[in-house]
Amino acid sequence: MVYLACIILLLCGIYCVAVKKNLIKIILGLIIMEYSVNLFFVVLGYKSGGSNPMPQAIVTVLILTGLSTTIIMTAIAMRLYERFGTFDITKIRKLKG
Amino acid sequence: MSYILPLFIAVPLLAAFLIMPHARLHRRLPDIICLAVTAFLLAASISFYFTGAMGNLSLYYVAGFVPPAGINLVLDGLSGLMLLIISFGAFIISIYSISYMDKFTHREYFSTLLMFMVAGMNGVVLTGDLLNLFIFLELASIASAALVAFGTEAEEMEAAFKYLMMGSIASMLLLFGIAIVYAQTGTLNMADASRLLYPAVSHVKMFIIMLFLAGFCTKAAVAPFHAWLPDAHPSAPAPISAMLSGILIKSLGIYTITRIMFNVMGMTYEVSLVLMWLGAFSIIVGSFLALSQWDIKRLLACSTISQVGYMVLAIGLASPMGVMGGLLHMLNHSIIKPLLFLNAGSVEYSTGTRDMKQLGGLGSRMPVTWITSLFGSLSLSGIPPFNGFWSKLLIIIACVQSGKFFFAAVAVVGSIMTLTYMLKFQQNTFFGIIPEKLHNIRKTPLSMALSMVTLALFCLLFGVLFQFVIAIFINPAVVTVASGLSYSRMILGGMQ
Lengths: 97, 496
Hints:
The complex is a heterodimer of chains A (97) and B (496). Chain A contains 3 helices and no strands. In chain A, 76% of the residues lie in helices and 0% in strands.
């Protein structure tokens, strides 16, 4: 059951990234995807008796990498807002081809 | 030799942390540190080929824990080849960026991020642990995304966001695959996971392979996962474009596909078929995209998609000849594509534009750039004395040998289209009548000319001496790839 929750969360994240037009919502979608994988790892650790420290250590590391990705994405989103005055990706279209 | 392996990750990381606080001491200090570090890495990676380290596997156990409990760094033929490609590219780019980066402020950020990227790529190619691979991959991706956004113009920000978004989705798919590997086997060590996954030909394994293929193909920009590349690669400063197109997608994409598919998961008929079709599709899509471009760097970036297609096609053939052709093309492309991007950077440095409609007749004004770009263009199109010819020939022969005549035809057509768009680049940039406003242009500085000439000479040298290149650099890598699933026995057998 819990595995299903992970998959549903992951799909929610992918849906959010694919469909939403707002930069911040896209970033949130990525964060949701990240959390679904983290949750998956945590659940794996629980299944093997609760005494397996490995998944906890892995999740700690993954939270850090996720944090750095989120920080840089947010920084870029802020700069984009400065340049374009909007978070709407349909209006941020200077590149083409 | 194995004690030297952690230095490939530690030295660039240390340099990255040293550059920031000491940048104010001297204006040129970041460049000097970058040059020293990359020269050291280049010397170390060349030394592997002359001390006999390539003949057998070198293992380094981090903190002394033996696998499968501990993390290990592995140096074999394939990793050695990748280390050489990364170090050589980084060294040339450090020389080039001395002059080129003068127009940017905050040079120390550039050097720091470059060092992080090198550390990440070295980690990806050396590690024998899936989670470590993911973390180094993220390190290299994040550093490269920051470098794409280095100019902080609107286009660059947009490209960086697109790149980071696609890259993060790919990373999440990879991480999900790694999590399923962990759920199946209870280990993250590649060799151990390979041993435990081997008997199981199941739906779960196919699912893992699909997740890995999607993730790594996005990192390698194989069509149809290529959408970020034509934006991200041209937006970066020229040395970084060269690094991204020439080296990053190979160490994060092609190397990881080869390693995971051959040595960890085991190459099957289905995977081989998928890789070949993706490669062929990539060749055609990349060529058509490149033909319609008028921005020099965008044209070169699109041609990268097409050339990556050749490597994936050849590696997907999974015959020794095909793997040899693919790896040789990887080595050659990591010389040619940086050269062409550096030429484009030199044109932009002198004239201030990359739009081919506004350029023309620069051949007489910038002789060094012209001649070196001619070398690069001919080499990429596969004209005989240059190195690109031999790798494309090997790939086409390998296709015919395996009886895949359709893919051989695609490779030939792709090569002709390569010649077409490279001629378009030459015609519109260096030949023809020079526009009025380009009569007084800046001269190419020495460091930029030096790095371009070095790369152009290597194009010719590797073409003339291709037998030695194959014998020295490619064959050990082919042996590693061909050893397939006995990789796990070799690694785990290494522990006493």
